[in-house]
Predict the 3D structure of the following.
Amino acid sequence: MKFALPRVIAITNQKGGSAKTTTSVNLAAALAMAGRKVLLIDLDPQANATIGFGLSSTDLDKSVYHVLIDVETTMRETIRRTELPNLSLLPATIHLSGAEVELVNTIGREIMLREKLGQLLPNSNFQYVILDCPPSLGLLTLNALTTANEVIIPVQTHFYALEGMSLLMNTIDLVKRRLNHNLFVTGILPTLYQSGTKLSERVLEELRKYFGSQVFQTTIRMNIRLAEAPSHGKPIFLYDAESNGAEDYTQLALEVIAHEIG
Ligand SMILES: Nc1ncnc2c1ncn2[C@@H]1O[C@H](COP(=O)(O)OP(=O)(O)OP(=O)(O)O)[C@@H](O)[C@H]1O
Ligand SMILES: [Mg+2]
């Protein structure tokens, strides 16, 4: 499957701790280092991606919450630069946890993000938009799935990995049929892979058996440097460029770029 730029990619899995945020941050950074103009949108009230860039809610007067809730607030005025010249961030704060409830009576509540991004993209030079989703299939994830053209599903290569995958695939299918015909699964990404363990190897085998070529060639290995980097407010490439984590996410970015048209 090939995709035209700009590409909008939701990183999603309702299962907690499957490395959605680690993947969002470091894939976005790797794409930026490969010369692409990238916008990372933090759609999780936990704000892990935002914190991972060293921003805290006290630094932020506006966030993605205001973009979703307030008609007047634009993405452009809310976006922040990062240490990487090609990478911008639309930050989240804990306020976002109220958005699902506050939007409940709003007409078009599942397309609020799509509307705001639609206003930004034609007047910007972003080539990639990466959406870091929360660990649920609620309204925020629904907004991501109506906005995106592509989905990347990080899956922890541990015992319960496959549990919940059919629910997620069904949800993506439903959104595709009812709300967003242009939605495709670009790939399933095995994460937190522990080399040399039977369990990781078996789960990877199972993923490939069930999902075949939908599974990325790249596997993200367990690497402590990936877990350390956010506490320094940096993506892996600015924290430890020589680490396995940097190598794996560079490899993933190359695979993603290979799906570009032209
Ligand atoms: N390859 C890796 N090696 C080591 N630690 C990792 C790796 N990937 C992620 N982690 C760590 O695992 C934890 C979960 O990762 P992460 O926050 O990216 O998952 P998530 O899916 O975004 O979680 P949530 O569902 O809460 O949003 C974090 O502490 C993170 O630093
Ligand atoms: Mg997360």
